[in-house]
Write a structure and sequence with these properties.
This protein is mainly α. It has a domain of about 120 residues: AhpD-like, CATH 1.20.1290.10. The radius of gyration is 17 Å and the shape is globular. The two termini are about 30 Å apart.
Length: about 190
């Protein structure tokens, strides 16, 4: 395994220092993901920008959580699933939604389940979904804008999930109570 350093605002590459200062100010600490991404300032800046764009999208807090956690679970991200569990709690997302996503069990509403199903279809097909999948998503009450915003969310999560896979980023202490392990493959 390649060792990826984790930086803070004092020792990071110059172009990452202000980004880490902003992260520390916003979060009260520098999340391990940000500390790791600081090695590549463009990656950290892009991730932070996409994070805000997803929050500013037309999805509500429950839908954002479904989008993020669906990708995190599909990618088996040991860091992001617990982190987004804590983030969802901070956003006051119902634990029933978070638990269903983590446990890969049915979501509380058909509307949210349609978002998870479409997001999984997009991830698994690398965007080559059938027209019927798009239509089913639209028929569930989503919009063409939201079809494209799913791509935005997936893009953000690819950046974080892949970074965490490579760097084996340790789960941050505030999120340790939410540690998660992927389901074992069926025998």
């Amino acid at each position: 395994m390649t060792d990826f350093p984790r930086y803070d605002e004092t020792n990071a590459p110059e172009a990452s220092r202000a980004l880490l200062e902003g992260s520390k100010k916003k979060n009260g600490r520098i999340p391990g993901l940000h500390a790791t991404m600081a090695e590549a300032p463009g990656l950290l800046e892009g991730y932070l920008h996409l994070h805000q764009l997803v929050l500013d999208s037309s999805f509500d807090k429950d839908e954002v959580t479904v989008l993020w956690q669906t990708v995190n679970v599909e990618h088996e991200c040991h860091y992001c699933v617990p982190a987004h569990t804590g983030i969802a709690k901070g956003m006051k997302v119902d634990d029933a939604i978070t638990n269903a996503l983590r446990d890969e069990t049915p979501l509380p509403t058909a509307h949210l389940e349609a978002l998870r199903t479409f997001t999984l279809a997009m991830v698994r097909s690398r965007g080559n979904v059938e027209d019927a999948a798009v239509q089913t998503f639209l028929d569930a009450g989503y919009t063409k804008r939201q079809v494209l915003e799913v791509i935005l969310g997936i893009s953000q999560k690819v950046m974080s999930n892949y970074t965490n896979h490579l760097a084996q980023t340790p789960v941050d202490p505030p999120f340790e109570p939410f540690v998660w392990h992927a389901k074992s493959p069926s025998a």
